[in-house]
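Example 3.
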Amino acid sequence: MLISYLPILVYLIISIGLAVLIVALSEALGKKTHTAVKDLPYECGMVPISDARHRYAVKFYVITMFFLVFDIEAIFLYPWGVIFKPLGLFGLIEMGVFILILMVGLAYVWGKGALEWE
Amino acid sequence: MQVLFLILAAVALISGVLVVIQVNPVRSALYLILNFFTVAGIYLLAHAEFIAAIQVIVYAGAIMVLFLFVIMLLNLRQPEEGGEKQHLAQKISGAALAGVTALLVIYTCTRINLGPAKEMVPGFGSTEAVARSLFTDYLLPFEVTSVLLLVALIGAVILARARLD
């Protein structure tokens, strides 16, 4: 059974190996010249005005939290879908209650205007 | 199989230590992703396929995004040089706590008698097996989970309320 996961392992080894190979080869073969112009952040385009470490707006956090909650809800749908037929009506009601409780949350979030971006 | 486990466990432990000792929080988060993936590999070796998939989808996917946003939200800059001394007490107490926990774990492990493992049920750890126990034996915890998620939703809105207005 575990043998069916072998392609993932092979894929992992190839991708790690390729990344190491590319970095190592460019380090070993590449020509390194440093001039004042070459060491600028950009060779063309806008000159950076500040670093990228700005404080992010809190709405990103709220949206991610919603994503996390509904992601977990979706995760529960996978096993439910697998045994949907043997569970029958019982399973349908079970999942209906689960989704209904979360829909209360969605209605609350929507009503509070937390889904609005501006 | 044993070799694979030892490699995964070693990478998990090393990346776990690296998460703690990093100065830059974003780097800590990146090592945490590595840690999540190795733990998913260990779950897979324990035949817990569904849990391994969830580990990657929820932890390495959604929760890591949340962590990164919180790091950016707090705007943690690189600490300046010389701030090391303040953390000395933290480091000592952290190491002491880890040491005590390790000793307790080792002590407990020597006390228990490990009998031969039970024969594994066919299909153990598959999505179907997890679903069967989740939707029959553990019906109540499953339904309570939705209340927990509801609390998380409302909590996030209330926490950010002052800023959203």
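Chain A touches chain B through 45 residues (CB under 8 Å). Chain A has a mean pLDDT of 86.
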